[in-house]
Specification:
Layout lengths: L6 E11 L5 E11 L2 H10 L9 E10 L1 E4 L8 E2 L13 E9 L6 H4 L4 E6 L18 E4 L5 H29 L2 H8 L5 H15 L3 H16 L1 H8 L9
Parallel strand pairs: 4-8
Antiparallel strand pairs: 1-2, 3-6, 4-5, 6-7
Helix pairs in contact: 5-6
Pfam families: Piezo_cap
Keywords: Membrane, Transmembrane, Transmembrane helix
Protein name: Piezo non-specific cation channel cap domain-containing protein
Length: 244
């Protein structure tokens, strides 16, 4: 029959301790498909027959070497790794060997059928990762600084917190009303009939297909808005007044 695909999933969980004693837990999951030879070794290791000898299952690219823990709450960690099909995957993924071990024969543990699993590096890594076959799973973790309200209070106190709030409110108010002085030239025009006629002329020229005429009128409007003095002469120099 056709062999069913078998996948091996590995999950590593980190617990980050924050400045004020709270913690945050994040996990990274890696799933790889097993080859036919690996599936057979796994079947032999998990069979119910008498356990004899250790079984080693080498798996390439089982887990990332470098992991980045982000500062965003509830965000999954990022594995800094190359694509699955790259020939240089060994730069970012580590090759591990899954070992099923049994105690020596004729021992009390062997009589009880004890067994255990362990992970080892498949080979020596001569890169900056610098692992040997005696090492187990190793990960270089890059952790962004976790920022929270409690951490802010612990670092700067309540005064720093209120200063940050006031600063944020001030920036918001400034962004809302800060551009008023740039709108005075347009908002305080007294007589806009000539400008309205120019805009109407642009519409009519476009409607009649006179593209050159439309372009000329449009450029005229742009020149008017770029020259406040000309715009003042065209729309009147008196200020708007509201009659009570």
């Amino acid at each position: 029959g056709v062999a069913c695909p078998v996948q091996l999933q590995m999950k590593v969980t980190w617990e980050r301790t924050l400045a004020v004693g709270s913690s945050r837990t994040v996990s990274l999951v890696r799933t790889v498909g097993l080859l036919e030879e690996q599936r057979q070794l796994l079947l032999n290791a998990t069979s119910t027959s008498p356990l004899t000898g250790n079984v080693s299952i080498p798996i390439n690219g089982l887990f990332a070497k470098f992991v980045r823990l982000t500062s965003v709450p509830n965000a999954a960690p990022t594995a800094t790794a190359l694509s699955q099909g790259s020939q240089d995957m060994w730069h970012s993924y580590q090759n591990l060997t899954l070992v099923r071990s049994v105690p020596p024969p004729h021992s009390a543990a062997a009589a009880d059928g004890e067994q255990w699993w362990s992970l080892h590096q498949t080979g020596a890594d001569l890169s900056a990762f610098n692992t040997t076959t005696a090492d187990g799973l190793q990960v270089v973790v890059i952790a962004d600084k976790a920022v929270s309200v409690s951490a802010l209070l612990a670092a700067g106190g309540i005064i720093a917190f209120y200063a940050a709030v006031v600063f944020a409110i001030g920036r918001t108010v400034r962004s809302i009303i800060g551009g008023t002085r740039y709108q005075l030239v347009v908002d305080e025009m007294v007589d806009t009939r000539d400008l309205s006629d120019l805009c109407e002329g642009v519409y009519l020229a476009r409607h009649e297909g006179q593209l050159m005429r439309e372009t000329e009128l449009h450029e005229t409007i742009l020149r008017l808005y770029r020259s406040p003095e000309t715009l003042l002469q065209l729309t009147g120099s008196s200020l708007k007044r509201r009659e009570d």
